[in-house]
Structure formats: structure tokens, C-alpha cells
Amino acid sequence: QLGIYLTGDNVFAGLEFLLAHGFLDNDADVRTSMMAAGVAVIGGSGAEHAESILPIMERYLENPKDRGLSEEQYDYVRLGAVVCIGATAQHLDPSNPKVVSIVNTLLDVLMTPSEVVQRSVSDRLPPLVKSLMAINKSFIEETVAGLLKTCLGGETYGDRRGAAYGLSGCVKGLGLSSLKAFGIMDALKGGVEDKKDTNAREGGLLAFECLSSKLGRLFEPYVIQILPMLLASLGDGKVEVREAADTASRVIMSQLTAQGVKLVLPSLLGGTEEKQWRAKQGSIQLLGSMAYCAPKQLGSCLPQIVPVLGEALADPHPKVSAAAKDAMDEVGAVIKNPEVAKLVPTLMAALADPNKHNKKALDTLLSTIFVNTVDSASLALIIPVVHRGLRDRSGDVKKRAARIVGNLCTLMNDPKDMSPYLPSLMPELQGALVDPLPEVRGAAAKALGALTKGMSGLQASSVVDISPWLLETMRSELSSVERSGAAQGLAEIIAVKGATYLDQILPEILASCDSKSAATREGSLTLFKYLPHCMTDDFQKILPEVLPRVLGGLADESEGVREASFAAGSVAVDLYAKTSLALVLPAVEAGAADGNWRIRQSSIELLGDLLFKVAGTSGRIQQDLNDDESEGISVESHGQAIIEVLGLERRNDVLARLYLARADVAYTVRTAALHVWKTIVTNTPKTLVEILPVLMSRVITGLSHSSEEQRNSSGQCLGELVKKLGDRVLPRIVPILMEGAHSEDPLTRVGVLNGMREVASNASKTQLTEFMADILTEIQRLLCDEDEQVRQSAGGALEVIFKTGGGSAADSVIPSLLNGLQCDGERVSKSLEGLRVVLSVRPQLLGVMVPRLVEPPLTMTDVVALGALSEVSGEAIHNYLSKILPPLFRMMHDQDEDVQEATAKALLGVVMAVEEDGIHLLVQQFNRGFDTPESTYGACVALRLFCKNTDLDFQEQIGGMLATLVPLLADEASERRIKAAWDALAAVTEKIPKEMAPSYVRPMKDAFTSAKERMIRRGAQPSACLPGLLLPKALSPFLTTYLQGILQGSNAELRELAAEAIGELVQLTDETTLKPFVIQITGPLIRIVGDKFPPHTKTAILRTMGIKGGRSRGPAGPLPCLPRTACSTRSWPSRR
């Protein structure tokens, strides 16, 4: 570095020192550095002192004996001096004769059998040859020709090698075009291909080596041309030729560029598939030489070379396999990682015989502690072994291979070194990711994550993005194993890509959780099982969005989805039980109260895991869950730990939920809750006393819930609480219920009443005695509540009290409510509603209420109450019809419209409460009502209401009804009663089915006969009209039955009877009433007369028509056809 700055005498002093001492050093590296220093000194001042420097150098080339130097020392000095002379000649004028002399001297020194000397001299030739070419071309041509001749025909190896070095120096100075201009390449090719001359072949190869070394990349275009010669020479019969070819190959390969590798490698790889072993051997040897490529080129070629060499190791030809082993040794020789260098024999054995040694190689790699980064050559040996491991059938081997891939990604020196192996590794890792063994899937997922992270520095085009495949597989209809592996791999990939990528992909994954496909839902939820482990902090931020999906999946119809959801929930609880308790606990608690039992079961188990985590216990202890009375395995420290983390208030709330779940309607939920309770609760009675207020609040809420399961669970819980602890908890439970009974929330009041019902059901009579008065007071009050659901619940509680033997105490409720009916305003309606509720649960209490309600004088309130209570009394009303109906019948006699309306409504409630087996009792009361004028109207109204609104079958009673109702049409004293009777008859006849109408002809005719006789007994003329048949449309209820008897009668006698009945009916009405029905009556009669019926039937019809004709004086439509009917009578057998 300082030599170029020497001037004046310092230049000569420096050169004298180098010649006298520096070039004589025993160390070759020192001597080489001394020569470089001499060249630097000359380079700095040679132009000024060239003429003076040359004599100094020439003096040291004289006889060494004069200087007392040994022959070896003289060679050292001579080499240094020649190099310096060559450097000095560059500063001389090319026309100076000394330049040619110096070149000749350099050429002479080239014959020195020392590679160091030859290389150094060769380095000095290019500038000198270049300068001489312009003025002395012939000298250059002679020089090149001489060097070629010596190179191909020199007697000694040193001469040939020196000539090769000289030739490469001349070509470098003259330029690449000189290879063709001077015929150098043709001459060298001819020499290499000379089968007879070994020296020529060796010399040509030496020249190729030197040219490649000297020209570097410039010689690359000729490599393709000489490649076949190198292949042939590597298999030459002469050792010296093979060695020269091997050396030339290494040098040539070390100079190749990336483009050169691309040009050469296909030919060499193709050569390994040749059938001739020599060609295969040569190609393998050249492939081994490529281990000496530059590091950049080495990384791109070794991934293709090593697998081929590995296969060649098993070649049947010994020389091919030996060549492959040598080539692999060459690859191993360029490994820079010391740890891998020690493993080369093991890796080579695995490559040679994978079945026998691959597992051992993997074990060795896993057990090796790496301190240094892994270079491309190391990867070239390791990756084939790992690739073979990933393809192994054994899951254990796959797992080890995947782990090694992950480790290599962290040890890579440059991500580009791994890039060539991605196309082969990725498919195998994908296969391992869907392996049946979870350990293999886990190792493959981590390897993918590490690979993605390690390759993140490369361009996107250089890296295979596996995310789309993972997403597709995770949602596919394949097996759950494959979906699980894809989810695990995707979790690792998301973790590498970071929170930003998670935010981008999360909406898509959450949407997949709600997909119609069960497989898609399962795969998406499985992702949440693995993702928290990969990115704990980032996942914590999305917990509020994820947990609802996870808990929702617990109730999925697909078992796979439920399992995936539970696994994801367990992971969330395990990781975030302490750090994100505020997020996890509410979600789990909400699931524990869900309407679906599967969600409740899984949520209780998750709640248990959370509490176990907080308490510091695993919870994985066998317990006797069939005995829920025995204590569990918890200790005080567990409970204290829970209180410290949750706080006392929150702890009580959680335990209250848990105890409530012990009474769940689903067995699996009860079992899960019992296991958790016994694991974390030390003293159950003590704990229940502590949490009782919160527990009762939850129980009351549950008892008022719209879900039947919730109500049953809460009731079961309260019942068990009362049964087990009885006197210990009742003094605290009852006040809580009393307080809740005054809540403004109707649902809370409902829950309280349901709680009272459970208390009454499960407590003994002795235990209830102390609290019965308070309970009945609240029940009585709530029986009159404004909310219907509250009233119904109060009735349910009262019913339980009756059933459990508290009827004597409950009897006081009825008088109080009855007294409420005597009050004014809102209390009347509330008391009535209370009585209705009581009667709905205890119908037999109607007997207590009726006497009080029918006491005269009957008020409007009593009437309304009788109707309202009858509606809910059921069959119990049958026994009290005789007490209820007569007062109501008489009440209808009142002329006040409001009274009549209220009474009619009450009557409707009474008659509609009667069931089928009580119809005969009801009809009895109707008949008795018809017997007295004060009751007739009310009885008729009640009968009409019954017939109009009932769906019961009372056909058997219709005949009796006709017999009692039709005579009422003869009542001349009250038009109101006649109209009521006719309305009742119309309602009764409407209930007669058309097909059954003929069967009622005789009862109806008899009833009219009775009515006519009744009129005559009262002094009326036999021809007098029946008052009830003078009403508008009075005949319609009866004509329908009679006409059906004529048309559809089962026999002639019945038809005759129906015709006579119509005639009788016509006689009991007047012309005005009859006129609208003339056509309706005449048409069927004429049709029957024209048919072939017995004469007495037709006679009866004609007689009726005669009666009708007498009553109806005006023209009638059907009468013109009577002459035809009369003519037809001539054919009758008898003309009476």
C-alpha cells in the first residue's frame, strides 16, 4: 500500500531490500506478498526509473554462487526479479529492444516447474504482449505458435503447464478474438482429441484450465464447445489426462456465471442418464466439479446436482458409483458450516442407502447443536435427506424431517439458498400437514410457519404462497383430519404475516363460521383452536368477535363442529383465564344460561376449566358423581384463590350459576356442573349460605323465564335446596321471596310465586307452619294482580298448598276474595280475577263460592261473577246448575237492558261451561225454567245461547226440547216470552242435521198437537191460530223438518205423517204468515203426488194442498199443474 508513494532513492532501497531479503523468505505467502510489493513500487515510479531498475534486477539473475545462495534460494530471487522485470518492462517504450528480450526471459522462466512461478510470470505477459502486437506482430505470432507447440508437445509436464500459462497470458493481452485469429482453440481441440498423443491431450486440457482461470467469464462461451471433450477426457485411459481433465473441470466450473450454469447443467444432467457408463461417469465427475462454482452459482446448481449424485451412488457399475461418491466428497469439501462438515459421512450414507441410514441421519441432525449459519452446500446435502424423510411412511420420521425443515429456516445464511428447494419441499409439507398423526401435523405446521418467515425477505414471485390452499382445504368436505391440519398450518402462516393480515382475513373466517356447510364451519372454528397459541397477544384483541362464534358452535347439529368449538373454547380459557378474564368469563356465563343444552354443557365445562385455572387445580380427578351429597376434593386455598381473582361478589354469582346448573334438565349438564362444583367447593352448606341471595335472585329469574327448561331447572334447584337444608335456609329464602313479591317487574313476581310453589312442594308441613301466614298473604294479594301471568302463578302456588295439606289455612283466601266483590272500583275486578284463578286450580271450591253469590238480592256484581267463575269451573259446575241457573233465569225477567245484557253474558258463561256428560242436567234446568212465567224468558234465552254457541252433541235432548218449547208458542200473555221461545226453537232446529230431520217429524207434530190442545183448554176455538206461528217467518224452523220428512222419509207412513203435519201447521197460522212459504211448501208436495207412492200418502198430500189452497186465496205459482196431477189419479188402483 505504501510502495506506490516511494520516490527517489527510496525506490531503489526498497527494491534492494526485496531482492536481498524479501524474496528469500521461507514462507511462500510472505514471498508472494513481497513480489506484490515490488510490483507496487515499480508501478508507482517505474515510468521515471525504469532504465535504472532493470540493471538492478539483471544483477540478481547472475550466477547464484557469487552471492552464496542455494539453488532453491536462487529460484526464489530469480522469480521475484523476473516478475519485477516484467512489471518494469510495462514502462518501457514497446520499440525498445529490451522489451522483446524481457518477454523472452519471461517465456524462459515459464518453463520453471513451479506453478507459483508460472502463474506470476503469466500475470506479467498480457500488457507486454498487447504493446508489442502493434509494432512487432510477427514476434507475437512466433511466440504464440511456440507456446502452442510446447503446450501440446512439450517433453515435461512443467514445460507443458508453463506453456499453457504463457498461452493464457498472451490471449489475455491480445484479447478473446486471438483465440480464433491465431487458431489457438482449433489447435487445442485437436490436441485434446488426439487419441495417440497423451502429452497433446494433457497439454490441451492444461491450456483450457489456464485460459478459463485467466479469462474468467470471457471464456464461458467456449465451455459448451469443450464440454464433450472434458467428459471424454475424464474417462481417458491415462491417469495424467484424467487428472488434467479433473483439474480443468474444477477451474472451469468455478468461473461459470449463473447463465453459464444454466447452459452447462442440462447437458451434464442428461449425461448421467446415458447408458454407457463412461459417459455417465464423466458427467458425474463434471457435476462434482461444479461444487467449485462461485457461492451464488453454487446455490442454484447444487439443488439439482446432489439428488442426481445421490441416485448415482446406488448405480450398479462400480466406477459410476465411485465417481458419484467422489463427486459427493467434492460437494462436501466445499461446505463451510463446521457442524455440517462433521455430518458429511452420515449424510452421504443416508443419500446412498436411504432405507437404512435416513432415520439415523435425521436423528443426528436433530441432536446437533448449530452455532454457525447453514450455507448452500450444506443445504444441498441436508435437503435430500429431509425430503426423503418427509416422504417416509413412518409418522415419527415425518415429524423429525418437518422439525429439521423448521430449524433450517432459522439457520439459513441467505433465504435464496432455500428457494430452489421450495417446489420439492412444499408438496411434502402439505402432505404431512394432513397426516393422521397430530404430532406430524403440528411439526409440519411449524415448519411451514418457519419457512414462510425465513423466506419473507424474498420477492413474492420467488415464494410459494400456500395460504389459498390452506383456506380451501380448511373449508373442504374432506376428512376432519385434513381440515384440522390446514387450520393449524394457516394459524402459523397468519402468525408470521402478523396482525395486519389477521385483520384482513378475520371477516372471511368469521363468515365461514356461519356457513351452511358443516365442514366449513368446523374448519373455521378449528382455526381458533390453534391461532391463540401462535399469536397470543394479537388474538386477545379479537376475542370479543370470536367467542360468540365459538359458543354458538357448541350447539351445532354437527358433532365435528361442536368438538371444534369446544376445543377452541378450551384454548381460549386456558390462555386467557387470567389475562383476559373480563372478556372470557361473561361469554362463558352467557353460554351456561343458553337455551340449548349442548351449549350449556360445553359452557359449564369451559367455566370449570376457567375456575380450575384460577384456583390452580387441574380438575382431572375421578369423583363419585352419582352421590351429589358427598363433598368434593377441593381445599380452602382453591376457593380463596378464586375469590382473590374474581372478587367475592363475582365469585358468588359464578357459583350461583354453577349450582343452578346442577339442577339442569339435561343429565350431561348436571353431571358437568356437579364435577366442577365438587372440584372447587370445599363446604357445600357453608357456600350455599354465602351465595344464597345471589342464588335466589337467579332462581326467581329462572322461575319466571319463558323457557320451560329454565323454569324446571330453577324449580328443581330451589326444591333441592329446601329439601337438603330445610330449616337452615327457609328463614333466609322466605324473606327473599317476600321482598321479591313486591317487585315492580311482573316477571319477578311470577318467579317469586313459582318459588313459593317449590318451597311449598318440598318443605315439610312443620317447616311451613311458621311461614304459611306470610306466604298466603302474598299469594292472596297476587291473586288479584293486574298481570294475568302473575295471577296464574299465584293460583299454581295456592294449588300446591292445597295439595300439601295446607288447605285449611288456604280456605281463608276465598272469603277474603268474595268480600272483595262487595267493594267498589278496581278491587272488584281484581277479586274476581283472583277467584277465577283459584277456581281454575281448585274447581271444587265452586261449592264455597256459589251459595255466597246467589244469596238474594242478586246484584250485577254477583251476576257477572257467576258467569266469569262458571267459565273456569269445568265439570264442577254440573253439581251447581240447580243453584246458579234459576236466579239467573229470574234475573232475565228484569226489563232493564243493562241487567239483561249482563245476565245473558253470565248465562252464556254458565251454559258453555257445561260438558257433554252434564247436558241432561242443563236440560232439566231449562225445563224447570219453562214451568214458571218468571223464568221462562230467561230459560229460553239460555237455551238459545247454548244451541248457538256449543259444539257438543245433544241430539238425544232435541225431542224433549221440542216438546217443552213448542207449547210455549201458545202463551198469549207475553209476546216477549213467545218471541224468546220461537228464537230458542229456531236455534234448536238449526242443530238438527238435514239427514236426521225426518226422525223429528213425529216429535214436532206431537208438540204442535199439545200446543193446540193447550190453547183449547184455555178457551180458544179449534180453528184458532197459534200465537207463536203468527210471527214473521214463524214457519221456517218447522217447515225444513217437515219437508225433509216428505222428500227423504224412510217410509210411506212417515211421508204421510209429514204431509199431515204440514197441513196441521198451515191450519195453525194465518194467510199473511203463510204466503211467503206457499211456493216452498207446494213444490215438494206436487212432486211427491206425481211420483209412484201409495194412495194414502198422496191423499194426505192432496188434503194438505186443499187446506193450503183454502188458506191461500191468491194465485199460486205451482197450482196450474194440478190438472195434470188430477188426470194422473185416474190410473190409481183405488179412488177413494
Could you explain how this protein is built, in words?
- The chain is mainly α and 1136 residues long.
- Helices cover 73% and strands 0% of the residues.
- The protein is built from 58 helices and no strands.
- The chain is elongated, with a radius of gyration of 60 Å.
- The protein starts with 8 loop residues before the first helix and ends in an 8-residue tail after the last helix.
The radius of gyration is: 60 Å
Please report the number of helical segments: 58
Mean pLDDT across residues: 80
Reported for the largest beta sheet, the result is: none
User: How many DSSP E strands?
Assistant: 0
Low-confidence runs: 459-463, 1113-1121
Quote the distance from N terminus to C terminus. Answer: 167 Å
What best-fitting shape do the alpha-carbon axes yield? elongated
Roughly what fraction of the amino acids lie in strands?
Answer: under 5%
Task: Specify the helix fraction band.
Answer: over 70%
Please state the structural category.
Answer: mainly alpha
Quick tags:
1136 residues; mainly alpha; 0% strand
In short:
By secondary structure, the protein is an all-alpha fold.
Give the helix/strand layout.
Elements: H1 9-20, H2 28-59, H3 71-89, H4 97-110, H5 115-135, H6 137-153, H7 157-174, H8 178-181, H9 184-192, H10 198-215, H11 223-234, H12 239-254, H13 258-271, H14 277-289, H15 295-312, H16 318-333, H17 338-352, H18 354-367, H19 376-390, H20 395-411, H21 415-418, H22 422-433, H23 438-454, H24 467-474, H25 480-497, H26 499-512, H27 518-534, H28 536-541, H29 543-553, H30 559-576, H31 581-592, H32 597-615, H33 636-646, H34 648-661, H35 667-680, H36 684-703, H37 708-725, H38 730-740, H39 746-762, H40 765-783, H41 788-810, H42 813-820, H43 826-841, H44 846-853, H45 860-871, H46 881-891, H47 897-913, H48 919-931, H49 933-949, H50 955-965, H51 975-990, H52 1001-1017, H53 1036-1048, H54 1052-1067, H55 1071-1074, H56 1078-1090, H57 1095-1111, H58 1122-1128
Helix pairs in contact: 1-2, 2-3, 3-4, 3-5, 4-5, 5-6, 5-7, 6-7, 6-10, 7-10, 9-10, 10-12, 11-12, 11-14, 12-14, 13-14, 13-15, 14-16, 15-16, 15-19, 17-18, 17-19, 18-19, 18-20, 19-20, 20-23, 22-23, 23-25, 24-25, 25-27, 27-29, 27-30, 29-30, 29-31, 30-32, 31-32, 32-33, 32-35, 33-34, 34-35, ...
